[in-house]
Design goal:
Layout lengths: L1 E8 L5 E8 L3 H4 L5 E2 L3 E4 L2 E4 L8 E4 L2 E4 L2 E7 L13 E4 L13 E3 L4 E5 L3 H5 L3 E5 L9 E4 L5 E7 L5 E4 L2 E4 L13 H8 L21 H9 L1
Antiparallel strand pairs: 1-2, 1-8, 3-14, 4-5, 6-7, 8-14, 9-10, 9-13, 11-12, 15-16
Length: about 230
């Protein structure tokens, strides 16, 4: 089990904060383990650390200016060996990894962080040249370094009305969406526990549609090589 915290913007524009205890499963961890404390996100008033954001603050996203609807968080704790949990390691994107000032300084992300991968050939293969892939799959020991911090790290993720991306250190990174979990059959108790983390959501379909395909680095490499 793991402790999760969630802060949401309700339809009447009030803000509610709740703490939850739920299983250390990908369904829950994917909602809270994208960005480490201190990560700067692009708002209409300039870069703001994710821990200082509140629901209702406006972000600059690929879908235009959008308000933050929900922020979830949990804590990475070192030394916990659990085959079920996804939160076993983090990734450090080093300064200038993707070009000058991309990012300007190191960015620490978790297993739920996905970035945009562009390949021209993909358009002919799947009808689009941009897909979302987990950052951790690109750890190479130089530009992106897999790490296991010695101390606890507070991790976050956030949701906006329309799923898309935002520039984190000049890198297009995904906003939260449960993805295939929307259509996946879940035990009633587990579904209720999950939706309890989202006071702004009534049923799974309220999360809306994914704006971009999610895949893996291995799948893209195999598709391009075929």
């Amino acid at each position: 089990m793991r402790k999760y915290e969630a802060t949401a913007l309700l339809p009447d524009l009030s803000i509610v904060h709740k703490a939850h205890v739920a299983p250390a499963l990908a369904l829950f961890e994917d909602a809270t383990t994208a960005f480490a404390r201190g990560t700067l996100l692009p708002t209409v008033r300039g870069p703001v650390a994710i821990e200082d954001l509140l629901p209702g603050d406006y972000l600059q996203t690929s879908e235009g200016t959008q308000p933050v609807l929900w922020i979830g968080s949990t804590t990475y704790v070192p030394g916990i060996d659990d085959d079920v949990s996804t939160l076993a390691r983090l990734a450090r994107i080093t300064a200038d990894a993707f070009g000058p000032s991309r990012p300007m300084s190191d960015v620490l992300v978790g297993p739920a962080a996905r970035m945009v991968l562009r390949r021209d050939r993909l358009r002919a293969l799947i009808g689009q040249d941009r897909v979302l892939v987990p950052v951790l799959e690109f750890a190479d020991g130089e530009r992106i370094v897999q790490i296991t911090p010695a101390g606890a790290v507070q991790m976050y993720h956030l949701m906006v009305p329309r799923h898309g991306t935002l520039r984190v250190g000049g890198i297009e990174m995904e906003s939260y969406h449960p993805g295939k979990a929307i259509a996946k059959p879940l035990p009633d108790a587990l579904r209720g526990l999950f939706l309890g983390m989202f006071p702004n959501i009534g049923v799974m379909q309220d999360f809306g549609d994914l704006s971009m395909t999610r895949t893996t680095r291995a799948a893209i490499d195999a598709l391009i090589a075929s």
